[in-house]
């Protein structure tokens, strides 16, 4: 199925972007951001070494640490690096490791910004010279929609079904340890809507719910801009997604 990607104007103006490509582990690269709003570092300096340490740590330990790890490395000040790695809770340890390996390579390739982020279907990795732990970040986001739309006769009912599902999943996700919820909602005999909501696990339950509520309201189908049969909003802190097909690897706290 074809997808269109929409990016906030601020990103288009200020951040070089790499658009979706396939990866060796079949977890598509959704986006990579090298922030121009932060500083830069050079290979071999203290900050570069701290970032490398974190990325190596994430690859080696995230899947074994329940698929989530946040860490800082280096003395407070100009050289300290803060990082976070996360695989979705439905992703197997092997797929998590494969995704983080690709992320480690992609996030440092041609990017020497002191703040960067990479998103895949199965994982995401982020680092910065500023402590972002426990803070909602929806400024860095991407919006993707399926190019296929629901027919006019069913469009509004499909929208209501989708929004109800994602709203319920957002409540569930914010109250679970893994901050992930997946489920489905019957639409008609030919269509079942499948949905997902999840947050990075550095957020509080309340902030997770706030982030997910924001993401749901940013969906083009919520705004009645288009009635796509699939779509997602991906931010640095949370993600919501719906499709006509199953995309989670297993049931996740539906």
In short:
The protein has helices at 9-14, 46-61, 93-108, 152-174, 205-218; strands at residues 3-6, 17-18, 29-34, 68-73, 81-87, 116-120, 123-128, 141-146, 180-188, 191-199, 231-235, 238-243. The protein is an alpha+beta fold. β6 and β7 form a beta hairpin.
As residue ranges, the low-confidence spans are 6-25
Q: What share of residues is helical?
A: 25-40%
In this structure, how is the largest beta sheet organized? 6 strands, antiparallel
What's the overall geometry?
A: elongated
CATH class label of the largest domain: Alpha Beta
The SSE string, one letter per element, is EHEEHEEHEEEHEEHEE
- Alpha-carbon Rg, integer: 18 Å
> Would you count the extended β strands for me?
12
CATH topology of the largest domain: Killer Toxin P4, Chain A
How are the SSEs placed, and which strands pair?
Elements: E1 3-6, H1 9-14, E2 17-18, E3 29-34, H2 46-61, E4 68-73, E5 81-87, H3 93-108, E6 116-120, E7 123-128, E8 141-146, H4 152-174, E9 180-188, E10 191-199, H5 205-218, E11 231-235, E12 238-243
Antiparallel strand pairs: 1-8, 2-3, 3-6, 4-5, 5-7, 6-7, 8-11, 9-10, 10-12, 11-12
Protein name: Cysteine-rich repeat secretory protein 38
Keywords: Repeat, Secreted, Signal
Pfam family, one: Stress-antifung
What report would you give on this structure?
It is found in: Secreted. Residues 29-132, 138-247 form the Gnk2-homologous domain. It comes from Striga hermonthica. The structure is a single chain. The protein is of the alpha+beta class and 254 residues long. It has two domains: 8-128, 2-Layer Sandwich (Killer Toxin P4, Chain A), CATH 3.30.430; 141-243, Killer Toxin P4, Chain A. It is 30% helix and 28% strand. The protein contains five helices and twelve strands. It has helices spanning 9-14, 46-61, 93-108, 152-174, 205-218; strands spanning 3-6, 17-18, 29-34, 68-73, 81-87, 116-120, 123-128, 141-146, 180-188, 191-199, 231-235, 238-243. A hairpin with a 7-residue loop joins strand 4 and strand 5. The radius of gyration is 18 Å and the shape is elongated.
